[in-house]
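Have a think about this chain, tokens included, and walk me through the fold.
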Amino acid sequence: MNAAAGRDTQGWNDGDPREAGWWWLMVAPSSSSYNPRWRKGITEGTHTQPRPGEIYVEQNGGDVVVRMSGAWTLGLTLPSAKSLQKDLHVGRSVTFRDEGISDWDSGLLLFLVPLVLEARSRKIATDTTALPSGVKRLLNLALAVPPKAGTSTTSAKRGILGRIGVGVLGALREGRTILDFMGEVTLGFLRLLRGRPRFRRRDLLHAIQESGVRALGIVGLISFLVGLILAYMGSVQLEQFGAQIYVADLVALGMLREMSAMMTGIVMAGRTGAAYAAQLGTMMVNEEIDSLRTVGLSPIDFLVLPRILALVLMMPLLAVYADFFGLLGGYLIGVTTLDLSPALYWDQTFNAIHLSDFLVGMVKSVVIGAIVAVSGCLRGMECGRSASDVGIATTSAVVTSIVLIIISEAIFAVLLQTLGI
């Protein structure tokens, strides 16, 4: 140190740092030699930014050579792989060379992997032997398994006819899936009618409890509000003609023939149908359904039939329950807002409805219950193998149920009008 102190300190940045007496600043745990540029930064009290990665492309006939230098780290501005794709189109082979790569991380892999995949897709040979050994190992690991078909986020643009064709093919596949499922369910019910059920009685009782007793609260609340809304909206118009009494007819016929079955079905689609899809979808993800098939049990008989049977049995009872609360909501508006006497309101209600109106509502409730149960079980049984697929199946079950409920209501309206019922 004393000898160094008496020497001229000019030109430290270009000479031997040990002459300056600060060799300890130069030694790093992972470095065996000093770097003049880094030493200059220390001397001036600043840290220089490493030079970002650069590429130099050479074309020798049909061979493309990509020379790479600088630091290839994610914190720097790196060249884009797309800039080389036009060069790959005209080449027979691509060679990547290390021409002074000072540092690298996954940023270098993000540059190389798309280029290698693009070259392979065009049957162009690639040579990565001149790259650092760590880069080669990670690159081989990244390319060991080919991308799964259908997982790419980009797809080729299709024309209008192509999109129509894809939509038609998807609809045909969906129709075939529904028909296959309905066929299996029908065969399961035939086995049940022959006295050969293959599900546990307690599973059926549990499904009845879940879809019946525990749904009373929400069904009663929704039906009461629907009856109240029908009565209030009807009273606003009928009061103009002094015909407030016919609010009772409107609420009674509306609830018994249409609203009770439809609103109960929509509520059960969001509550029970979604639960069926989520339960069966989770079983599919956990491979429980595959286990049932392995031991010789039909998932349709063991899991689907008790759920469908429970909801079909409970829906008429829930519809009657909804009728009562709907009439109660109309009664509340008639008595409090229209100043009708309780006896007059109930007398007008019972004179307006007939047995056919009640039976129409019961038939609709059975059909809607079957729609909700089949839709939930179908989406659950065709669920994928991931957690996100369970959510997709649940959403699809609710949407499918509601759409089919509205369609069935429209069909019933046309049929009943045609038959004069």
Remarks:
- The longest strand covers residues 93-104.
- The longest helix spans residues 247-285.
- Confidence is low (pLDDT under 50) at residues 1-47.
